[in-house]
Amino acid sequence: MGELEEYLYHYFGYSTFRNGQKEIIEDVNEKKDVLAVLPTGSGKSICYQLPAMMNEGMVLVVSPLLSLMEDQVKQMRARGFKRVIALNSMMAVQERNRQIQHLHQYQLVYVSPEMLQNRQLTAKLSRMSIQLFVIDEAHCISQWGHEFRPDYLRLQSIHKQLHAPPILALTATATPDVQHDIMSFMGMRDVNKHIHPMDKPNIAFLIERVNHQEKKLDYISSLLSSYQVPTMIYFSSRKEAERISLYLDEKVEGLRVAYYHGGLDTQDRILIQQQFMYDQLDVICCTSAFGMGIDKQNVRLVIHYHMPAEVESFIQEVGRAGRDGEESISVLLYHEHDRNIPQRLIDSELPNQGLLQEVVDWIFHRQSIPIHEVESYIIEKTGNETPWRFIHYQLEQIGMKNNSIFLSETYSKQWVLSQLQNAYQQRLQYKISKLLTMEQWVLQDEMCRREALFQYFQDMITPPNGMCCDQCDFRWDHWKTNRTVNNQEETASTWKNKLAQLLLQETEYEI
Amino acid sequence: MFTYILLDSICKLRGERTVSNIYHLLTAKKSTQTIQDSYIYQLTNYFGIYKRLERKTFQKELRHLYDQGWIEVYQDKQVVLTTEGRSVLNGFDHSQIYLNGMKYDNHALFTMQVIQLLVQTCTHIQQHHDTFIPVVDDESVQQKVKEIFYYYQKDTNTILYHLYQELTRLFEQAPEPLGHLFTDQLTTPRHIGSSKIQLAREYGQTVHDMHCQLMNLSHFLCFAIEKDSSVSFLKEIVPHERNMNLPLTGSAQKTYKLWQKGHGLEMIASQRNLKISTIQDHMVEIAYVVKNFDYSPFLSDHQLQWIANQIDRLQTNKLKEIKESLDDHISYFQIKLVLAMSHQQKEGVF
Asked: How far off is chain B from A66, nearest CA to CA, in Å?
């Protein structure tokens, strides 16, 4: 066993690395700048977790996904590594300040990009020795990334402020353009690139077009009646996820179904996740909120009840199937009205014309206005953070931001408004083109689905090691898969017996 | 149970308050007004029992009550029960409700979660599963469970045995579903507990009803642990420390601290840069919860007696009516203080 493998075994209990991990860690340990594009589920996080555990100095991870950060902190603590913490802006101020003061006690620190605007935090960080600056979901830096996040554009100056430690930029999906953007924006030199293909040879692709929405239900229920296997069904609305979950629960005998979305209590979310992890549930009806922090190996079916708004999300979600390498299947259901759903999501992500006008009027009327006032107004009004991030970034670019206020002096109102509107139009066009690309893939019938899907990201596809797609060779009756083992114990009839069964399993007291 | 709580709240408010007041009560929006109202209308039991309730959902539920013909809503959003609503309310069996929001508030959920996490921890360690994802996220709960675990020197058998003994004892005296609900939620290495939504489905209830049921369960636990002298293990691990945190708004807390140091109202107002009327509101809040409240700077004994007598005679909570029955020099502030103190005498709270 090599030295790195020994560390891996010691901290994680695995004796070998997965594809690509070792090479990345070696480069990281040599203090090189690294760009890594690794498919979902290939264990990206180990690439910085292991260096954090084995080397001196702190590893700082910037990630936009709060739930993912928290899941990872939990998993690391569960493994016995306690010097890990996640800071986000949702915490109470006092608690956060206390944690910032004690930051030097941690080896691995996760922060959200908006936290890096906190001066107390950056001041503390700049006094510490940081061995590695990790940018998770690095595609957010690029305007051409599907999830562009304006606050990622501050990473450049913050990286300098922290005395420019080596960078590890990680993402699961990045076209060559996006890769270029990341490296040039962060000023990464002599970059060691590790670009891995995003296609997995054990996933087959299937598209099922229906002429009536309710036919999707028939399709899924008959599919799940024949295959009781670990399944994720993705929806673009919470309501639909709930409705279909209840429908399947009633319709398919013996199937164990639950739904999961961002509206559930924290405790319910943990319980449902864990039930799915331990095969206590067969099917999860979920929104994109589910799955990021989950390391379930045996998901066999990923069904998209609605088409996602872009190919990148689709690939990420499909990538949660078959992590154990067993043959797994992606099914996308499509009805011609489905294009309206992502269209609506796009609308809700961008501030509409009326709101732009209103905000500009407001700032020019007041002449100077605290940023947080504008922030809470927009978030309250739209129920979504993305429009706010958009406006904030645009005003900052124009130069109206002065510390914590927006100032209107020296600008013409008409000019500011037209700048915002142009930016809005550009973003909208971009989002719509993404959506069209997704839909094109769904509607094309000439090419192999696998080739068509990955053509934007890589030149070659890995030959599938099972079936390929419904254009090539897919047949349900050629799918060999096993039913989920129902490991539920017989439960006792009265609560008292059950309580004894749960609490006194290994003790020999008389009951 | 949720319907019962809504109807009961509407009934007790007697049309003197709006629906928003009920919403603030259930979600524990800690404003002086909400706290005072909950005392005046004897609604302290429901204080903060549904903190995550969304306003949209709340309005939908009220709409439902309205469609059933159980409530009537006036122009100015005040709400009353119809005759039918009243008979529906009377038809509920409320003997199994242990809710005591103002008293147990956050302590109830804490107690419940400590026990749940303790069970998960001990059963996992006992069966040599050293790593697991805790079912409870809350830092303070995790800390508490750690303390207990080390205090008992990691003796999982003993902890689980005590838990079994005492929980069985408590739930044997409880209404039937509580023991079931409690055990269904537990997580051990062989079985992950049921979520609230799953329980609601299993018991054929709405998620809101199940939420209230589970709150009721946690309040029952607190109540029973406090009352039953034989459950010494539970008493030790999750004691209910009274007066640790008086149920006051944050701002009233600050006023109270200054007041205890001997600062007068004017001084507090100028120090805190607040209006004197705000500080007076804080004093009223304090008068509801602090035992032996020293009223002498604000009221003579004679005034106290006089106001109390008028309130007694008029049998109303309407400040205006009370004020009109007294001399002009008696202020609203003084009346509110007397209402607060007489409430404490009646209820013997805290």
From this structure: 14
Among the candidates B209, B237, B265, a domain finishes at B237
Q: Which chain B residues have any C-beta within 8 angstroms of a chain A C-beta?
A: 52, 113, 119, 123, 126-127, 130-137, 157, 160-161, 163-164, 167-168, 171-172, 179-180, 182-183, 186-188, 190-198, 201
Smallest Cβ–Cβ distance between B197 and the set A79, A268, A270 belongs to A268
Domain match, B272 and B318 both: yes
* pLDDT tens, residue by residue, B84-140: 999 999 998 888 899 988 888 888 999 999 999 999 999 999 988 877 888 998 888
Give per-residue pLDDT as tens, A240-270: 999 999 999 999 988 999 999 988 888 999 8
The answer to the question of residue B242 being in a domain is no
Q: Which of A301, A342, A335, A329 is nearest to A146 (CA)?
A: A342
With respect to residue B306, please indicate whether it lies within any of the assigned structural domains.
Answer: yes
pLDDT of residue B350: 38
In the predicted structure, residue B263 carries a pLDDT above the cut 50? yes
**More confident call, B225 vs A43:** B225
Please enumerate in sequence order all residues whose Cβ is within 8 A of that of A307, keeping only pairs 6 or more positions apart, or say none: A314, A332, A334, A338, A339, A341, A342, A438, A439, A442
B310 within a domain of the structure (yes/no): yes
Same domain, B39 and B122: no
In angstroms, rounded to a whole number, what is the distance separating the alpha carbons of residues B156 and A504? Answer: 10
Q: Which domain holds residue B71?
A: 2-91
A residues 217-276 near B, CB within 8 Å?
249, 258-259, 264-268, 270-275
Same domain, B195 and B124: yes
The shares of helix, strand and coil residues in chain B, as percent rounded to the nearest 5, are: 65, 5, 35
B293 within some domain:
yes
pLDDT for position B281: 87
pTM of the model: 0.80
Task: Say if residues A302 and A291 touch (Cβ distance below 8 Å).
Answer: no
Which of the listed residues B237, B270, B296 is the one where a domain comes to its end? B237
